[in-house]
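Input (Endoplasmic reticulum-Golgi intermediate compartment protein):
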Amino acid sequence: MRRLTKKKALTLMKELDAFPKVPESYVESTTSGGTVSLIAFTFMAVLALLEFFVYRHTWMKYEYEVDRDFSSKLRINVDITVAMRCQYIGADVLDLAETMVASDGLQYEPVNFELPPQQRIWHMTLLHIQERLRVEHALQDVIFKAAIKGAPPAQTKSEDSTASLSACRIHGHLYVNKVAGNFHITVGKSIPHPRGHAHLAALVSHDSYNFSHRIDHLSFGEPLPGMISPLDGTEKIAIDSNHMFQYFITIVPTKLNTYKVSADTHQYSVTERERVINHAAGSHGVSGIFMKYDISSLMVKVTEQHMPLWQFLVRLCGIIGGIFSTTGMIHGLVGFLVDVVCCRFQMGIYKPKDDLPAQENSETQLPAENYTE
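Output:
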């Protein structure tokens, strides 16, 4: 009984076979078929290799949502060199509520404004990257993954005496409220004031004003290695002592989630304006560097995505099956056309038996007297 049941099961499975086997005696191998097979296998291998590279590639997905975090502090990372002595200038932040933020996290370091050769090469490379980013926005994906592998060369302290150093490097970070504000560098050290703040500029000679500057780095949020901000590498030369430089910055909170980095940072866009203040002509303003920033209410979520394994396998099966079927059809069509063009296609062979001549049918019939009794 068990053998009978097993035999029926095997018979049923045999009837369900969707891949029937053809005896080798019914198969004919041709040179053209071998050539087409070789071409098909080559295409399969090439496309499968390219598909594997696509599978290894990742891409960035951008999503937008409302930023509901209003209580946290915003970090400002600063590294700016100004062509004035450190005792003549001061940097601080004044937010929209006229609240002065202490600049205790900033350090003032006397330096030379001109860069050493190694740092100048790095600066020129950074400017070249910024130029390409303005043209090809897709490079921002590369920046998010890791634009610059190594860190910039460290600024070595000059062997000259402090008195001979005519520039000041302001670097460090400070925390501000997540509201619009104004980070500025101007003449004189800042002091708190009941109605805001003031700078002690009376003791500084007007002839010593020179707000030529170089922004080595300016970013918002937690610093990430390899990230390039829009103002990094910016260098401006003041043509007059009454020169004012203004940067209008729009900050966008960004939640970055890649295979290498997962952090909350802030990207920003910037527009620039500079002018010479002429008090005799009625111009208003103060010489210095002013960075007015505002924070967007939208947050961008940047996620690095990878093709799933099942999708890669489906695409791979589609490549192999599609090429195999397509080349088979093309081979049959080309063979048919060759037979027609070479006049070797015999239509009579493919005619049905009902269309054969009547004479041929009569020859195969038996005589009528054979059926008489």
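The mean pLDDT is 78.
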